[in-house]
Design brief:
The structure is a homodimer of 145-residue chains. Chain A has 145 residues and is of the alpha/beta class. Helix content of chain A is 28%, strand content 35%. A six-stranded mixed sheet of chain A has the order 4-3-2-5-6-7. A two-stranded parallel ribbon of chain A has the order 1-8. The first copy, chain A, is globular.
């Protein structure tokens, strides 16, 4: 278990942003995990089109989780978006998001930026800062309790 | 000009959350300003339905600003939502958001929670923490520069 605090987050987010050559039409945050970073990234890149979609996982059985992706924004005028989330863990969420985008906007390009990446995941983000080797307690979860 | 840092934000957000008797079907953040607080409020209230909409102001002339509200989530199953934003300044944004919700979902009830409220505004939030007497430099704007 690793507590991930605000100061560390700001430091890492600057590293993440500096890896990105920004040529996107919007930032697309996966809620809830990507909300805070998308907010600050919008400021960094001076991008007012910070959009979100919702992803909620439901336990289908003890071993299987179903991910529901909904509330996608209107991206009909976008050519390329930057999807942001806190972590790519199993990769299930991001693959579901990518599939949904592909279905609705077949020509839309997208890259993925995250703070953490678990190497065992089915998907590797285009940009990331840290490898996740343990459970991360993000400040947005812990500090408000 | 007042710098509003993360520590102060967490303290105020706890005060704000404790004012609220939570009986909403979703948290609806106004992007970008309400994104970070909506994220932490979702954690506080254990609410996974943290939705967003976009509000972007365009200068129409030197004196007038036009506010565009778009990307509203699907609220057809919601009876009551909690709209959150960092500040009610002129009140124009929140009035536009309320009007748009009224038009799309005439039966939907909503309350409004903000960190700051400027007393000269045309709208007073249901819940707020501070009066805004000067320009606020929020940490999400400043810390990432």
């Amino acid at each position: 278990m690793r507590y991930y605090g605000y100061e560390e987050f700001v430091k890492d987010l600057k590293i993440l942003c500096n890896k990105i050559s920004y040529d996107y039409d919007a930032i697309l945050a996966i809620a809830r995990g990507g909300l805070t970073m998308a907010h600050l990234m919008g400021e960094f890149f001076n991008e007012r089109r910070v959009f979100t979609l919702n992803s909620i996982g439901y336990e289908e059985s003890r071993k299987r989780e179903k991910v529901e992706v909904f509330n996608l924004p209107d991206l009909s005028n976008a050519k390329k978006v930057l999807i942001v989330d806190d972590i790519v863990d199993s990769g299930d969420t991001i693959l579901k998001v990518k599939a949904k985008l592909q279905q609705l906007y077949p020509l839309l390009k997208s890259d993925v930026a995250t703070l953490f990446f678990k190497e065992s995941a089915k998907f590797k983000p285009t940009f990331f800062v840290n490898y996740a080797n343990e459970w991360i307690d993000f400040f947005w979860t812990k500090d408000i309790r």
